[in-house]
Each structure stands twice: as C-alpha cells, then as structure tokens.
Write a structure and sequence with these properties.
The protein is mainly beta and 445 residues long. It has two domains: 81 residues, Phosphatidylinositol 3-kinase Catalytic Subunit, Chain A, domain 1 (Ubiquitin-like (UB roll), Roll), CATH 3.10.20.90; 338 residues, Methylamine Dehydrogenase, Chain H (7 Propeller), CATH 2.130.10.10. It is 4% helix and 47% strand. A hairpin with a 4-residue loop joins strand 13 and strand 14. The longest helix has 12 residues. The radius of gyration is 24 Å and the shape is globular. Keywords: Nucleus, Repeat, Ribosome biogenesis, rRNA processing, WD repeat.
Length: 445
C-alpha cells in the first residue's frame, strides 16, 4: 500500500483512499493509498498529479457519494459518521471553468428561443438564430449585427432550430411551423426567405426537434399532440383544412410577404392529456421520439408506426426536455423547480434516476454540453441559467449564470438555452440573446 507524505504527516490521521476516474487519459492505479485526512481539494489534486507523474499540474475536483467534496477528508468523515479505518472511493474529474460573459444582442421583444449554428459554412463565422415574440426570426453574427430577418408568422415565435447550414424551422403562437432558406455571401449580407408553411396543430406550437438523418421534424403543441413533419416540403402531404388565427395588424409581423406553399404533417401523435411542452428524437435512432407534457407524462414513440411505446408519470408537470446521448438519459425540467434525469428504456422502472435541485422557479429550457457528456445547462423563470454536473446530483449547480446588461431588475425570466460550440446561448424576458463563453477542450481551470 502506498503512503503519501505531507507536512506533519506523522501527526496527522490518515485514511485509505481509492482514486477512480471515468477518463482513461488521466487514470491512475486503483489500489488504495494512505493520505492525511486534513487534505482538501487542492491537496488531493496534488496527490493525483503526483501519481500521474504529470509535467503540468492538472486541477481536479473530487466526487464522493454523488456530491463534490468541499471540505477536508476529516470533516467529511465526521459529518458522515465514518471511521478512519474506512476506505473512501474518490472519483476525480477535471475542474470545471466558470462560463464568462461574452456578448448580448438586444431585441424589440421577448426572446423565446435560440439556436447557434457552426455548420460547415458557418464554422469560421458562427451565427446565432433567435426567435422573438414580435414574430420575427433573426440571424446574428457574434459582433451583434443582424445579418437578416424573417417575418411571416402572424404571432410570436416560440421555437427555432437549424435544419442545416442553409435552412431552419420556426414554430409559433399562430399554430404553424415555417421552413426558411438562409443564404449568406461571407460578408454581412444575407437573406432569409420562407420556403414552406406547415399546418395541422390547433394551438400554439411550443417546441421543436430536428433530425438531420431522417430529414424530419417533431413539434410539441399546446393542443396535446406531437406533430411529425418532413423537413423536405415536396415530400409532405397537402395541408389540411384548418382555420388559422386572423393575421395581427399591430406589428411588423403583419407585413404582407410572398405567398408561401402550405403542407400537412406526416402524422399527429395523440395520447397526452395536457399541453405538450417538449420533444426530442432518440440520439441514435431516428425512428424513436420522446415527448413531455403538462400532464406529468414522459412518452416514447415509435415514429414509424405512430405507436406510443411507453409512458412514465412524473410527480409534476414537465416543461422542457433534452437528451444526454452518451448517458442514455432524458433530462426533464419541471414546474416544481427541479430537473429529473430519466432512463427512457422500457426496462427502466424508475421515472427518475437522479434529481437536480437549485432553481427557484420553473425550468423551461435544457441543453446538454456537446463536449462533455456529464454537463447540462438549464434555463429558469428565476432569471438564471445554471450549469450542472449530473454525476454530482447532491451538489447543486456547478455555476449560476445571471443576466447581464443595463436596465435589468434581476427578475427577468429566461426562456431558452442552447449549449453550443460557441458557448452557452440563452434568451429571455429581458429582450436579449446572451452568450457566455465556455472553455474549449483541453483548457484548464
């Protein structure tokens, strides 16, 4: 058994510790070693770096029993009634770096939805798509310039998603979806043109999900249905006879634009007993979809047959949904201010595998970190975006991101969040898109 020396080690109580990690690049031998109980995060990080024989010191955090260790080992042992003869298993992870405010873009109305694009044509010049309650979709560069606007919805936009580098889809309070073509010439010049309008829902279309493999779109509606649509208008059926709301005459959204061809859905999936608030495709199977609702239900759908495969009931209305691909988990934001992590597989009995608590109002937006399978961002009506490590469900949020800018009272709701390559992008009641930069792979705290 190895023993780690420390100042006054002979006078210090020692305990056996086993260091484990899920990152093979920084793994050490799993055999227990003796360390002084007066060590905290920094001292333990030095121990692991010593074991790694690392030329450059790497800062680590340590997880024990689903929470970050924020005290000495001795304090943890006493608090949990453990004996110094216990062998503690400490999972070490690279220490996270707090997101930093990068920029914000001012809108004329509330920002309901955001989507960053770094598709092939946007890799060198990333752009951000935003949807607003003024009914206008806007594409921005990171300098805060509006490259182009798309007006055509007759009411506020609720959700926006990129389909590819040259097209995106929006949904609205006017009960419709729209596909738009986006073109840019590499300068500030760009254009947005409507390509198709999809009709079929009988109430607000709250949320969207897209699948590039199948070229399909899922929609969540307040009418209690899940819509399945083709992202290729010419492969869509004719639009049904549904009476849509009368065009507003008050705002720019009412401007007469070119007549847009209308199409219908591939399917309308019924089964929820309340407004559907979130939808998602299974990350590894385009024929499987998920939906969540104000009726507390989490449903899994076979999109080929339109059959509801499984239904699980949570304790509270569910307002948002995101998939965590590598973990095979669904993150579900609730009206009860917390996030539940659900295993959607049919043989998983428990609705919740873990619960993340910390928001003080409804959780209405969720997005997983594309560069770290364990991290998740959430948007709340408490005016914050929070960053979580789902391995540490008992620790609360890693970081809290507040709204920044002049004229804010601190109570403005956040409506949406997306964790992208350019950082954590969010929008809300403050009429702003805000971007907080996050570290790139390899950066250290």
């Amino acid at each position: 058994m190895m023993e780690i020396d420390a100042p006054d080690a002979q006078q210090q109580t020692q305990i056996q510790v086993k260091f484990v990690t899920r990152d093979p690049e920084i793994a050490v031998a799993a055999a227990p070693i003796l360390v002084p109980t007066n060590l905290k995060r920094f001292g333990l990080s030095q121990v692991v770096n010593h074991l790694l024989s690392s030329d450059k010191s790497i800062p680590f955090d340590f997880l024990v029993d689903g929470a970050y260790l924020r005290s000495t080992l001795d304090a943890y042992i006493i608090q949990n009634g453990l004996s110094s003869e216990t062998t503690l298993t400490l999972e070490y992870v690279r220490a996270a770096i707090p997101p930093k405010f990068l920029t914000s873009f001012q809108h004329d109305d509330w920002v309901s939805s955001v989507a960053a694009s770094t598709h092939n044509k946007h890799n060198n010049d990333p752009v951000v798509l935003s949807g607003s309650y003024d009914g206008i979709a806007r594409v921005w560069n990171l300098s805060g310039q509006v490259l182009s606007e798309g007006a055509g919805h007759t009411a506020g936009i609720k959700s926006v998603k990129w389909l590819d580098a040259e097209s995106f889809v929006t949904s609205s309070l006017d009960r419709t979806l729209r596909i738009w073509r986006y073109t840019a010439d590499g300068t500030v010049a760009a254009s947005i043109k409507p390509a198709a309008e999809y009709i079929g829902h009988k109430s607000t279309v709250e949320s969207l999900a897209v699948n590039q493999q199948s070229k399909q779109i899922l929609s969540a509606s307040a009418d209690g249905t899940v819509g399945l649509w083709s992202a290729l208008p010419k492969q869509s059926p004719a639009a049904p006879e549904i009476e849509l709301p009368i065009r507003s005459k008050k705002r720019k959204m009412a401007a007469n634009g070119p007549k847009v061809p209308q199409y219908g859905s591939l399917a309308m999936l019924k089964g929820h007993q309340g407004p559907v608030s979130g939808v998602a495709f299974a990350p590894n199977d385009a024929t499987v979809g998920y939906s969540v609702s104000w009726d507390n239900m989490i449903k899994t759908w076979d999109l080929t047959t339109g059959v509801n495969v499984t239904t699980k009931k949570a304790k509270n209305p569910i307002l948002s949904l995101a998939t965590m691909k590598e973990l095979n988990l669904l993150a579900c934001g609730t009206s009860a201010r917390h996030i539940i992590l659900n295993d959607p597989r049919e043989n998983a009995e428990a609705v919740s595998t873990a619960t993340l608590r910390g928001h003080t109002n409804a959780v209405v937006g969720l997005s997983a970190n594309p560069a770290n399978e364990w991290e998740l961002a959430s948007a709340g009506h408490d005016g914050t975006v929070r960053v979580w490590d789902v391995r540490a469900s008992e620790s609360g949020a890693l970081f809290t991101i507040n709204r920044e800018g002049e004229g804010l009272n601190g109570n403005e709701k956040v409506f949406d969040v997306e964790w992208s390559k350019i950082g954590i992008v969010s929008g809300g009641e403050d009429k702003r898109v805000q971007i907080n930069a996050t570290p790139k792979a390899g950066e250290q705290a």
